[in-house]
Amino acid sequence: MSELLNRRLSLLGQRNNLPLLEQCLHGIERECLRVTEDGRLAQTPHPEALGSALTHEQITTDYSESLLEFITPALTDPAKTLESLEHIHRFAYAKLGDEYLWSPSMPCPLPAEEDIPIAWYGTSNIGQLKYVYRKGLALRYGRTMQCIAGIHYNFSLPEKLWPLLMQAEGAEGSERDYQSAAYIALIRNFRRYSWLLMYLFGASPALDAGFLRGRPHQLEAFDATTLYLPYATSLRMSDLGYQSNAQAGLTPCYNDLNSYTDSLRKAVGTPYPPYVEIGTHKDGEWVQLNTNILQIENEYYSNIRPKRVTYTGERPIQALMARGVQYVEARCLDINPFLPTGIDLTEARFLDAFLLYCALEESPLLENGECGQCTSNFLTVVKEGRRPGLTLQRKGQPVTLKEWAEDLLQRIEPLARLLDQSHGGDEHVNALAQQQAKVDDPELTPSAQVLASMTENRESFSEFALRQSKVHAEYLRSQALPAEELQRFETLARTSLAAQAELEQQEVGDFDLFVSAYQASILAISN
Protein backbone atom coordinates (compact mmCIF):
# COMPACT_ATOMS: atom_id res chain seq x y z
CA MET A 1 0.00 0.00 0.00
CA SER A 2 1.34 3.44 -0.88
CA GLU A 3 2.11 5.98 1.81
CA LEU A 4 -0.52 8.33 0.34
CA LEU A 5 -3.26 5.67 0.54
CA ASN A 6 -2.21 4.86 4.10
CA ARG A 7 -2.50 8.49 5.17
CA ARG A 8 -5.87 8.91 3.47
CA LEU A 9 -7.23 5.72 5.04
CA SER A 10 -6.25 6.77 8.54
CA LEU A 11 -7.76 10.24 7.98
CA LEU A 12 -11.08 8.81 6.75
CA GLY A 13 -11.02 6.17 9.47
CA GLN A 14 -11.18 8.83 12.20
CA ARG A 15 -14.49 8.70 14.06
CA ASN A 16 -15.75 12.12 12.97
CA ASN A 17 -14.81 11.49 9.29
CA LEU A 18 -16.12 7.93 9.02
CA PRO A 19 -19.79 8.93 8.38
CA LEU A 20 -18.61 10.71 5.19
CA LEU A 21 -18.33 7.39 3.37
CA GLU A 22 -22.06 6.79 3.84
CA GLN A 23 -22.64 9.79 1.56
CA CYS A 24 -21.11 8.34 -1.62
CA LEU A 25 -23.73 8.41 -4.41
CA HIS A 26 -24.62 5.47 -6.68
CA GLY A 27 -26.70 5.60 -9.85
CA ILE A 28 -27.30 2.87 -12.42
CA GLU A 29 -28.29 3.00 -16.09
CA ARG A 30 -29.31 -0.31 -17.63
CA GLU A 31 -29.93 -0.75 -21.35
CA CYS A 32 -31.96 -3.68 -22.73
CA LEU A 33 -33.61 -4.67 -25.99
CA ARG A 34 -37.33 -5.29 -26.28
CA VAL A 35 -37.88 -8.64 -27.99
CA THR A 36 -40.84 -10.71 -29.19
CA GLU A 37 -41.97 -13.97 -27.66
CA ASP A 38 -39.70 -15.91 -30.04
CA GLY A 39 -36.66 -13.76 -29.24
CA ARG A 40 -36.67 -11.44 -32.27
CA LEU A 41 -36.14 -7.69 -32.11
CA ALA A 42 -39.43 -5.92 -31.34
CA GLN A 43 -40.39 -3.67 -34.29
CA THR A 44 -43.06 -1.82 -32.31
CA PRO A 45 -42.66 1.86 -31.32
CA HIS A 46 -41.55 2.75 -27.78
CA PRO A 47 -44.65 1.91 -25.69
CA GLU A 48 -46.61 5.10 -25.03
CA ALA A 49 -47.64 3.72 -21.63
CA LEU A 50 -43.99 4.05 -20.54
CA GLY A 51 -44.05 7.79 -21.29
CA SER A 52 -41.99 9.98 -23.59
CA ALA A 53 -38.48 8.76 -24.37
CA LEU A 54 -37.51 12.43 -24.82
CA THR A 55 -38.64 13.87 -21.49
CA HIS A 56 -38.96 10.92 -19.05
CA GLU A 57 -36.15 10.99 -16.49
CA GLN A 58 -36.12 7.26 -15.73
CA ILE A 59 -37.30 5.42 -18.85
CA THR A 60 -35.91 6.35 -22.24
CA THR A 61 -34.42 4.72 -25.33
CA ASP A 62 -30.78 4.52 -26.28
CA TYR A 63 -29.86 4.02 -29.93
CA SER A 64 -32.81 2.08 -31.24
CA GLU A 65 -36.55 2.46 -30.72
CA SER A 66 -36.30 -1.12 -29.39
CA LEU A 67 -33.40 -0.40 -26.99
CA LEU A 68 -34.80 0.69 -23.63
CA GLU A 69 -32.71 2.51 -21.05
CA PHE A 70 -33.66 2.52 -17.38
CA ILE A 71 -32.12 5.23 -15.18
CA THR A 72 -32.15 5.28 -11.38
CA PRO A 73 -31.67 8.39 -9.28
CA ALA A 74 -28.25 8.74 -7.58
CA LEU A 75 -28.74 7.52 -4.00
CA THR A 76 -26.48 7.07 -0.98
CA ASP A 77 -27.53 3.44 -0.41
CA PRO A 78 -26.79 1.12 -3.38
CA ALA A 79 -29.47 -1.26 -2.05
CA LYS A 80 -32.01 1.55 -2.62
CA THR A 81 -30.51 2.26 -6.08
CA LEU A 82 -31.03 -1.40 -7.00
CA GLU A 83 -34.56 -1.36 -5.57
CA SER A 84 -35.29 1.66 -7.77
CA LEU A 85 -33.91 -0.22 -10.79
CA GLU A 86 -36.11 -3.23 -10.01
CA HIS A 87 -39.18 -1.00 -9.70
CA ILE A 88 -38.53 0.46 -13.15
CA HIS A 89 -38.27 -3.09 -14.54
CA ARG A 90 -41.54 -4.12 -12.85
CA PHE A 91 -43.36 -1.06 -14.20
CA ALA A 92 -42.00 -1.70 -17.71
CA TYR A 93 -43.20 -5.29 -17.58
CA ALA A 94 -46.66 -4.10 -16.54
CA LYS A 95 -46.82 -2.19 -19.87
CA LEU A 96 -44.90 -4.45 -22.28
CA GLY A 97 -47.75 -6.74 -23.28
CA ASP A 98 -46.30 -9.93 -24.78
CA GLU A 99 -42.80 -8.49 -25.26
CA TYR A 100 -39.72 -9.36 -23.17
CA LEU A 101 -36.57 -7.60 -21.99
CA TRP A 102 -33.54 -9.36 -23.46
CA SER A 103 -31.35 -10.72 -20.65
CA PRO A 104 -27.71 -10.39 -21.89
CA SER A 105 -25.58 -7.60 -23.35
CA MET A 106 -25.11 -9.08 -26.82
CA PRO A 107 -28.22 -8.69 -28.97
CA CYS A 108 -30.89 -11.15 -30.08
CA PRO A 109 -30.93 -12.34 -33.71
CA LEU A 110 -31.32 -9.04 -35.55
CA PRO A 111 -33.27 -8.18 -38.70
CA ALA A 112 -31.56 -6.70 -41.77
CA GLU A 113 -29.44 -3.65 -40.92
CA GLU A 114 -31.98 -1.20 -42.43
CA ASP A 115 -34.83 -2.81 -40.46
CA ILE A 116 -33.32 -1.97 -37.06
CA PRO A 117 -35.47 1.04 -36.06
CA ILE A 118 -33.63 4.21 -34.99
CA ALA A 119 -35.08 5.85 -31.87
CA TRP A 120 -37.56 8.64 -32.61
CA TYR A 121 -38.09 11.56 -30.21
CA GLY A 122 -40.78 13.62 -31.89
CA THR A 123 -40.73 16.81 -33.93
CA SER A 124 -39.18 19.32 -31.50
CA ASN A 125 -35.73 20.61 -32.45
CA ILE A 126 -34.03 18.79 -29.59
CA GLY A 127 -35.98 15.61 -30.45
CA GLN A 128 -34.89 15.85 -34.08
CA LEU A 129 -31.29 16.54 -33.01
CA LYS A 130 -31.28 13.27 -31.06
CA TYR A 131 -32.71 11.44 -34.09
CA VAL A 132 -30.21 12.88 -36.60
CA TYR A 133 -27.33 12.11 -34.20
CA ARG A 134 -28.45 8.45 -34.24
CA LYS A 135 -28.73 8.51 -38.04
CA GLY A 136 -25.10 9.67 -37.99
CA LEU A 137 -24.15 6.76 -35.71
CA ALA A 138 -25.82 4.35 -38.15
CA LEU A 139 -23.84 5.86 -41.00
CA ARG A 140 -20.54 5.76 -39.10
CA TYR A 141 -20.67 2.46 -37.24
CA GLY A 142 -23.71 0.57 -38.54
CA ARG A 143 -26.94 -0.10 -36.68
CA THR A 144 -26.06 -3.63 -35.56
CA MET A 145 -23.29 -2.52 -33.24
CA GLN A 146 -25.57 0.03 -31.59
CA CYS A 147 -27.85 -2.79 -30.35
CA ILE A 148 -25.28 -3.97 -27.79
CA ALA A 149 -26.50 -3.20 -24.25
CA GLY A 150 -24.60 -2.59 -21.04
CA ILE A 151 -24.75 -1.26 -17.51
CA HIS A 152 -23.32 2.11 -16.53
CA TYR A 153 -22.42 2.60 -12.88
CA ASN A 154 -22.32 6.22 -11.71
CA PHE A 155 -20.31 6.89 -8.57
CA SER A 156 -19.30 9.96 -6.61
CA LEU A 157 -17.51 10.63 -3.36
CA PRO A 158 -19.10 13.17 -1.00
CA GLU A 159 -18.29 16.81 -1.79
CA LYS A 160 -17.13 17.37 1.81
CA LEU A 161 -14.41 14.74 1.46
CA TRP A 162 -12.28 16.74 -1.00
CA PRO A 163 -11.62 19.85 1.16
CA LEU A 164 -10.72 17.46 4.02
CA LEU A 165 -8.08 15.68 1.88
CA MET A 166 -6.93 18.94 0.35
CA GLN A 167 -6.27 20.52 3.73
CA ALA A 168 -4.54 17.39 5.09
CA GLU A 169 -2.25 17.30 2.04
CA GLY A 170 -1.59 21.04 1.96
CA ALA A 171 -2.66 21.21 -1.71
CA GLU A 172 -2.66 24.57 -3.51
CA GLY A 173 -5.37 25.98 -5.78
CA SER A 174 -9.15 25.87 -5.64
CA GLU A 175 -11.27 23.09 -4.12
CA ARG A 176 -13.02 22.62 -7.45
CA ASP A 177 -9.73 22.05 -9.28
CA TYR A 178 -8.52 19.67 -6.56
CA GLN A 179 -11.75 17.66 -6.83
CA SER A 180 -11.52 17.48 -10.65
CA ALA A 181 -7.86 16.43 -10.49
CA ALA A 182 -8.78 13.70 -7.95
CA TYR A 183 -11.50 12.30 -10.22
CA ILE A 184 -9.15 12.34 -13.23
CA ALA A 185 -6.61 10.46 -11.05
CA LEU A 186 -9.35 7.92 -10.24
CA ILE A 187 -9.92 7.49 -14.01
CA ARG A 188 -6.19 6.86 -14.61
CA ASN A 189 -6.23 4.11 -12.00
CA PHE A 190 -9.45 2.73 -13.48
CA ARG A 191 -7.65 2.52 -16.84
CA ARG A 192 -4.86 0.57 -15.13
CA TYR A 193 -7.06 -1.90 -13.27
CA SER A 194 -10.41 -2.18 -15.10
CA TRP A 195 -9.28 -5.44 -16.74
CA LEU A 196 -10.08 -6.96 -13.32
CA LEU A 197 -13.75 -5.94 -13.67
CA MET A 198 -13.89 -7.66 -17.06
CA TYR A 199 -12.58 -10.88 -15.55
CA LEU A 200 -14.94 -10.75 -12.56
CA PHE A 201 -18.12 -9.46 -14.23
CA GLY A 202 -17.71 -10.03 -17.98
CA ALA A 203 -20.74 -12.05 -19.12
CA SER A 204 -20.61 -12.05 -22.92
CA PRO A 205 -18.35 -14.92 -24.10
CA ALA A 206 -20.73 -15.84 -26.96
CA LEU A 207 -22.99 -14.16 -29.50
CA ASP A 208 -25.49 -14.84 -32.24
CA ALA A 209 -23.54 -15.53 -35.46
CA GLY A 210 -25.74 -13.13 -37.44
CA PHE A 211 -24.36 -10.23 -35.40
CA LEU A 212 -21.16 -10.23 -37.48
CA ARG A 213 -23.07 -9.81 -40.78
CA GLY A 214 -20.52 -12.02 -42.53
CA ARG A 215 -17.50 -9.92 -41.44
CA PRO A 216 -14.20 -11.81 -41.00
CA HIS A 217 -13.53 -12.78 -37.36
CA GLN A 218 -11.40 -14.96 -35.08
CA LEU A 219 -14.30 -16.58 -33.19
CA GLU A 220 -15.03 -20.31 -32.93
CA ALA A 221 -18.36 -22.01 -33.69
CA PHE A 222 -20.22 -23.14 -30.57
CA ASP A 223 -23.10 -24.50 -32.67
CA ALA A 224 -24.79 -23.67 -35.98
CA THR A 225 -25.94 -20.20 -34.88
CA THR A 226 -23.53 -19.29 -32.06
CA LEU A 227 -19.97 -17.97 -32.13
CA TYR A 228 -17.76 -17.72 -29.04
CA LEU A 229 -14.23 -17.75 -27.65
CA PRO A 230 -13.57 -20.46 -25.06
CA TYR A 231 -11.76 -18.16 -22.59
CA ALA A 232 -13.52 -14.87 -23.41
CA THR A 233 -15.07 -12.80 -20.63
CA SER A 234 -16.67 -9.94 -22.60
CA LEU A 235 -16.90 -9.98 -26.39
CA ARG A 236 -19.05 -6.87 -25.93
CA MET A 237 -15.97 -4.91 -24.88
CA SER A 238 -13.65 -6.48 -27.48
CA ASP A 239 -12.83 -5.00 -30.88
CA LEU A 240 -15.88 -6.86 -32.23
CA GLY A 241 -18.02 -4.39 -30.35
CA TYR A 242 -17.31 -0.72 -30.86
CA GLN A 243 -14.97 -0.23 -33.80
CA SER A 244 -14.21 3.20 -35.15
CA ASN A 245 -11.42 4.18 -37.49
CA ALA A 246 -12.21 7.85 -36.94
CA GLN A 247 -11.80 7.49 -33.17
CA ALA A 248 -8.66 5.34 -33.43
CA GLY A 249 -6.37 8.37 -33.18
CA LEU A 250 -8.44 9.94 -30.42
CA THR A 251 -7.02 9.02 -27.04
CA PRO A 252 -8.06 11.73 -24.63
CA CYS A 253 -5.26 12.25 -22.21
CA TYR A 254 -6.33 11.69 -18.60
CA ASN A 255 -3.48 13.76 -17.17
CA ASP A 256 -5.78 16.64 -16.24
CA LEU A 257 -9.29 17.87 -16.96
CA ASN A 258 -8.14 20.49 -19.48
CA SER A 259 -6.25 18.06 -21.68
CA TYR A 260 -9.29 15.72 -21.62
CA THR A 261 -11.82 18.42 -22.58
CA ASP A 262 -9.39 19.85 -25.16
CA SER A 263 -9.02 16.55 -27.00
CA LEU A 264 -12.81 16.01 -27.10
CA ARG A 265 -13.45 19.60 -28.17
CA LYS A 266 -10.96 19.23 -31.01
CA ALA A 267 -12.57 15.96 -32.11
CA VAL A 268 -16.01 17.62 -32.21
CA GLY A 269 -14.52 20.43 -34.33
CA THR A 270 -12.13 18.54 -36.64
CA PRO A 271 -13.41 17.28 -40.02
CA TYR A 272 -12.83 13.60 -40.85
CA PRO A 273 -12.37 13.16 -44.65
CA PRO A 274 -14.57 10.04 -45.12
CA TYR A 275 -17.44 11.80 -43.27
CA VAL A 276 -16.83 15.02 -45.24
CA GLU A 277 -17.23 13.00 -48.42
CA ILE A 278 -20.68 11.84 -47.29
CA GLY A 279 -21.77 15.32 -46.18
CA THR A 280 -24.51 16.20 -43.70
CA HIS A 281 -27.44 15.87 -46.17
CA LYS A 282 -28.63 13.33 -48.70
CA ASP A 283 -31.59 14.08 -50.97
CA GLY A 284 -32.35 17.12 -48.82
CA GLU A 285 -32.51 15.07 -45.57
CA TRP A 286 -30.10 15.31 -42.64
CA VAL A 287 -27.93 12.17 -42.37
CA GLN A 288 -25.46 13.32 -39.67
CA LEU A 289 -25.08 16.40 -37.47
CA ASN A 290 -21.65 17.28 -38.88
CA THR A 291 -18.71 15.73 -40.73
CA ASN A 292 -16.27 15.84 -37.81
CA ILE A 293 -14.49 13.02 -35.95
CA LEU A 294 -17.30 13.17 -33.37
CA GLN A 295 -20.76 14.65 -33.96
CA ILE A 296 -21.06 15.37 -30.22
CA GLU A 297 -18.82 14.51 -27.28
CA ASN A 298 -21.03 11.56 -26.17
CA GLU A 299 -20.04 9.73 -29.34
CA TYR A 300 -16.60 9.06 -27.83
CA TYR A 301 -16.63 5.42 -26.68
CA SER A 302 -14.72 4.99 -23.44
CA ASN A 303 -14.79 2.61 -20.48
CA ILE A 304 -15.20 5.45 -18.00
CA ARG A 305 -16.13 9.13 -18.26
CA PRO A 306 -15.77 12.16 -15.98
CA LYS A 307 -19.24 13.70 -15.62
CA ARG A 308 -21.11 16.72 -14.29
CA VAL A 309 -24.89 17.18 -14.22
CA THR A 310 -25.79 19.56 -17.06
CA TYR A 311 -28.23 22.48 -17.08
CA THR A 312 -30.94 22.66 -19.75
CA GLY A 313 -29.36 23.26 -23.14
CA GLU A 314 -25.82 22.87 -21.78
CA ARG A 315 -23.36 20.42 -23.35
CA PRO A 316 -21.43 17.89 -21.22
CA ILE A 317 -18.08 19.53 -22.07
CA GLN A 318 -19.38 22.98 -21.11
CA ALA A 319 -20.56 21.67 -17.74
CA LEU A 320 -17.18 20.04 -17.03
CA MET A 321 -15.23 23.15 -18.01
CA ALA A 322 -17.50 25.50 -16.07
CA ARG A 323 -17.94 23.55 -12.84
CA GLY A 324 -15.47 20.64 -12.83
CA VAL A 325 -15.96 16.89 -12.38
CA GLN A 326 -18.80 15.79 -10.12
CA TYR A 327 -18.85 12.00 -10.56
CA VAL A 328 -17.58 9.19 -12.79
CA GLU A 329 -19.55 6.88 -15.06
CA ALA A 330 -18.06 3.37 -15.36
CA ARG A 331 -19.31 2.08 -18.71
CA CYS A 332 -17.64 -1.30 -19.24
CA LEU A 333 -19.98 -3.53 -17.23
CA ASP A 334 -21.82 -6.35 -18.98
CA ILE A 335 -25.38 -7.20 -18.10
CA ASN A 336 -25.39 -10.40 -16.04
CA PRO A 337 -27.99 -12.60 -17.80
CA PHE A 338 -28.56 -14.61 -14.60
CA LEU A 339 -29.86 -11.54 -12.71
CA PRO A 340 -33.33 -10.02 -13.29
CA THR A 341 -31.96 -6.45 -13.41
CA GLY A 342 -28.51 -7.43 -14.75
CA ILE A 343 -26.60 -6.39 -11.61
CA ASP A 344 -26.88 -7.17 -7.89
CA LEU A 345 -25.83 -5.72 -4.55
CA THR A 346 -22.68 -7.86 -4.27
CA GLU A 347 -21.38 -6.40 -7.53
CA ALA A 348 -22.31 -2.86 -6.43
CA ARG A 349 -20.54 -3.27 -3.06
CA PHE A 350 -17.40 -4.51 -4.79
CA LEU A 351 -17.54 -1.69 -7.36
CA ASP A 352 -17.71 0.84 -4.51
CA ALA A 353 -14.59 -0.60 -2.87
CA PHE A 354 -12.81 -0.83 -6.26
CA LEU A 355 -13.67 2.76 -7.24
CA LEU A 356 -12.73 4.05 -3.79
CA TYR A 357 -9.37 2.31 -4.16
CA CYS A 358 -8.90 3.94 -7.58
CA ALA A 359 -9.77 7.34 -6.05
CA LEU A 360 -7.53 7.19 -2.99
CA GLU A 361 -4.51 5.21 -4.22
CA GLU A 362 -1.58 7.04 -5.74
CA SER A 363 -2.14 7.63 -9.48
CA PRO A 364 0.90 8.79 -11.42
CA LEU A 365 0.42 10.18 -14.94
CA LEU A 366 0.13 7.61 -17.72
CA GLU A 367 3.50 7.95 -19.45
CA ASN A 368 5.97 6.00 -21.61
CA GLY A 369 3.45 3.78 -23.36
CA GLU A 370 1.52 2.91 -20.19
CA CYS A 371 -1.70 4.07 -21.88
CA GLY A 372 -1.22 1.50 -24.65
CA GLN A 373 -0.36 -1.15 -22.08
CA CYS A 374 -3.64 -0.48 -20.21
CA THR A 375 -5.62 -0.90 -23.45
CA SER A 376 -3.71 -4.05 -24.35
CA ASN A 377 -4.29 -5.66 -20.91
CA PHE A 378 -7.99 -4.83 -21.13
CA LEU A 379 -8.37 -6.34 -24.63
CA THR A 380 -6.41 -9.45 -23.60
CA VAL A 381 -8.75 -10.08 -20.66
CA VAL A 382 -11.98 -9.54 -22.62
CA LYS A 383 -10.91 -12.15 -25.19
CA GLU A 384 -8.89 -14.59 -23.08
CA GLY A 385 -9.41 -13.70 -19.42
CA ARG A 386 -10.02 -17.28 -18.26
CA ARG A 387 -7.10 -18.84 -20.16
CA PRO A 388 -4.97 -20.80 -17.63
CA GLY A 389 -1.68 -19.02 -16.90
CA LEU A 390 -2.67 -15.89 -18.86
CA THR A 391 -0.08 -13.10 -18.47
CA LEU A 392 -0.57 -9.33 -18.57
CA GLN A 393 1.94 -6.47 -18.58
CA ARG A 394 2.50 -4.57 -15.32
CA LYS A 395 4.98 -1.69 -15.56
CA GLY A 396 6.44 -3.32 -18.65
CA GLN A 397 6.96 -6.69 -16.90
CA PRO A 398 4.90 -9.88 -17.46
CA VAL A 399 2.70 -10.96 -14.55
CA THR A 400 0.01 -13.65 -14.46
CA LEU A 401 -3.58 -12.41 -14.26
CA LYS A 402 -4.12 -14.57 -11.16
CA GLU A 403 -1.14 -13.12 -9.29
CA TRP A 404 -2.03 -9.52 -10.16
CA ALA A 405 -5.73 -10.04 -9.39
CA GLU A 406 -4.89 -11.48 -5.95
CA ASP A 407 -2.53 -8.59 -5.29
CA LEU A 408 -5.20 -6.03 -6.28
CA LEU A 409 -7.89 -7.66 -4.15
CA GLN A 410 -5.51 -7.55 -1.16
CA ARG A 411 -4.94 -3.83 -1.80
CA ILE A 412 -8.68 -3.18 -2.08
CA GLU A 413 -9.46 -5.03 1.16
CA PRO A 414 -8.64 -2.10 3.51
CA LEU A 415 -11.10 0.04 1.51
CA ALA A 416 -13.80 -2.64 1.83
CA ARG A 417 -13.13 -2.74 5.60
CA LEU A 418 -13.33 1.03 5.83
CA LEU A 419 -16.68 1.02 4.01
CA ASP A 420 -17.99 -1.68 6.36
CA GLN A 421 -16.76 0.30 9.36
CA SER A 422 -18.67 3.31 8.07
CA HIS A 423 -21.88 1.46 7.13
CA GLY A 424 -21.84 -1.23 9.82
CA GLY A 425 -21.94 -4.92 8.86
CA ASP A 426 -19.53 -6.84 6.64
CA GLU A 427 -21.13 -6.67 3.18
CA HIS A 428 -18.16 -5.07 1.41
CA VAL A 429 -15.65 -7.57 2.78
CA ASN A 430 -18.03 -10.42 1.84
CA ALA A 431 -18.39 -9.01 -1.68
CA LEU A 432 -14.59 -8.96 -1.93
CA ALA A 433 -14.38 -12.58 -0.77
CA GLN A 434 -16.82 -13.60 -3.53
CA GLN A 435 -14.52 -12.00 -6.10
CA GLN A 436 -11.49 -13.80 -4.62
CA ALA A 437 -13.39 -17.08 -5.12
CA LYS A 438 -13.70 -16.25 -8.86
CA VAL A 439 -9.95 -15.59 -9.07
CA ASP A 440 -9.33 -18.99 -7.40
CA ASP A 441 -11.81 -20.74 -9.70
CA PRO A 442 -12.53 -19.22 -13.15
CA GLU A 443 -15.59 -21.53 -13.46
CA LEU A 444 -17.38 -19.23 -10.99
CA THR A 445 -17.16 -16.20 -13.32
CA PRO A 446 -20.36 -15.16 -15.13
CA SER A 447 -18.69 -15.72 -18.52
CA ALA A 448 -17.85 -19.34 -17.64
CA GLN A 449 -21.36 -19.85 -16.23
CA VAL A 450 -22.96 -18.64 -19.46
CA LEU A 451 -21.02 -21.21 -21.50
CA ALA A 452 -21.66 -23.94 -18.89
CA SER A 453 -25.41 -23.27 -18.98
CA MET A 454 -25.49 -23.31 -22.80
CA THR A 455 -23.52 -26.58 -22.85
CA GLU A 456 -25.60 -28.26 -20.15
CA ASN A 457 -28.91 -27.32 -21.77
CA ARG A 458 -27.62 -27.84 -25.33
CA GLU A 459 -28.75 -24.35 -26.20
CA SER A 460 -27.58 -21.78 -28.69
CA PHE A 461 -26.71 -18.33 -27.33
CA SER A 462 -30.14 -17.02 -28.39
CA GLU A 463 -32.03 -19.96 -26.83
CA PHE A 464 -30.14 -19.48 -23.56
CA ALA A 465 -30.79 -15.71 -23.58
CA LEU A 466 -34.50 -16.08 -24.34
CA ARG A 467 -34.93 -18.70 -21.61
CA GLN A 468 -33.28 -16.36 -19.10
CA SER A 469 -35.40 -13.44 -20.34
CA LYS A 470 -38.57 -15.46 -19.68
CA VAL A 471 -37.38 -16.54 -16.22
CA HIS A 472 -36.74 -12.88 -15.31
CA ALA A 473 -40.07 -11.77 -16.80
CA GLU A 474 -41.90 -14.26 -14.61
CA TYR A 475 -40.03 -13.05 -11.52
CA LEU A 476 -40.61 -9.36 -12.29
CA ARG A 477 -44.28 -9.84 -13.17
CA SER A 478 -44.98 -12.12 -10.18
CA GLN A 479 -44.96 -9.27 -7.69
CA ALA A 480 -47.02 -6.16 -8.33
CA LEU A 481 -45.49 -2.77 -7.64
CA PRO A 482 -46.64 -1.09 -4.42
CA ALA A 483 -49.75 0.98 -5.31
CA GLU A 484 -48.13 4.36 -4.59
CA GLU A 485 -45.07 3.42 -6.66
CA LEU A 486 -47.27 2.35 -9.60
CA GLN A 487 -49.14 5.64 -9.27
CA ARG A 488 -45.85 7.56 -9.31
CA PHE A 489 -44.73 5.86 -12.54
CA GLU A 490 -48.13 6.40 -14.17
CA THR A 491 -47.89 10.10 -13.31
CA LEU A 492 -44.30 10.33 -14.61
CA ALA A 493 -45.38 8.75 -17.89
CA ARG A 494 -48.33 11.15 -18.33
CA THR A 495 -46.30 14.21 -17.34
CA SER A 496 -43.49 13.29 -19.74
CA LEU A 497 -45.91 12.91 -22.67
CA ALA A 498 -47.45 16.30 -21.84
CA ALA A 499 -43.96 17.86 -21.60
CA GLN A 500 -43.02 16.55 -25.04
CA ALA A 501 -46.30 17.80 -26.55
CA GLU A 502 -45.75 21.25 -25.01
CA LEU A 503 -42.19 21.37 -26.35
CA GLU A 504 -43.45 20.58 -29.84
CA GLN A 505 -46.25 23.18 -29.69
CA GLN A 506 -43.98 25.95 -28.46
CA GLU A 507 -41.07 25.22 -30.81
CA VAL A 508 -39.67 28.34 -32.43
CA GLY A 509 -36.97 28.61 -35.08
CA ASP A 510 -36.05 26.13 -37.73
CA PHE A 511 -34.05 22.94 -37.25
CA ASP A 512 -31.10 23.94 -39.47
CA LEU A 513 -30.55 27.09 -37.39
CA PHE A 514 -30.93 25.05 -34.20
CA VAL A 515 -28.16 22.67 -35.33
CA SER A 516 -25.91 25.59 -36.30
CA ALA A 517 -26.36 27.16 -32.86
CA TYR A 518 -25.70 23.80 -31.22
CA GLN A 519 -22.45 23.36 -33.19
CA ALA A 520 -21.43 26.94 -32.44
CA SER A 521 -21.87 26.36 -28.69
CA ILE A 522 -18.85 24.05 -28.67
CA LEU A 523 -16.78 26.24 -30.98
CA ALA A 524 -17.45 29.24 -28.74
CA ILE A 525 -15.70 27.59 -25.82
CA SER A 526 -12.82 26.36 -27.94
CA ASN A 527 -11.66 29.87 -28.86
From TrEMBL:
Enzyme class, broadest EC rank: ligase
Biological or metabolic pathway of the protein: Sulfur metabolism; glutathione biosynthesis; glutathione from L-cysteine and L-glutamate: step 1/2
SUPFAM superfamilies: Glutamine synthetase/guanido kinase (SSF55931)
UniProt KW Membrane keyword: no
Keywords: ATP-binding, Glutathione biosynthesis, Ligase, Nucleotide-binding
Assigned EC number: 6.3.2.2
Classification via Pfam families: Glu_cys_ligase
GO cellular component, one term: cytosol
Domain spans labelled Glutamate--cysteine ligase: 10-381
Biological process terms in GO annotation: glutathione biosynthetic process
Molecular-function GO terms, alphabetical: ATP binding; glutamate-cysteine ligase activity; metal ion binding
Catalyzed reactions per annotation: L-cysteine + L-glutamate + ATP = gamma-L-glutamyl-L-cysteine + ADP + phosphate + H(+)
Family under the similarity heading: Belongs to the glutamate--cysteine ligase type 1 family. Type 1 subfamily.
Name assigned to this protein: Glutamate--cysteine ligase
Native source organism of the sequence: Pseudomonas laurentiana
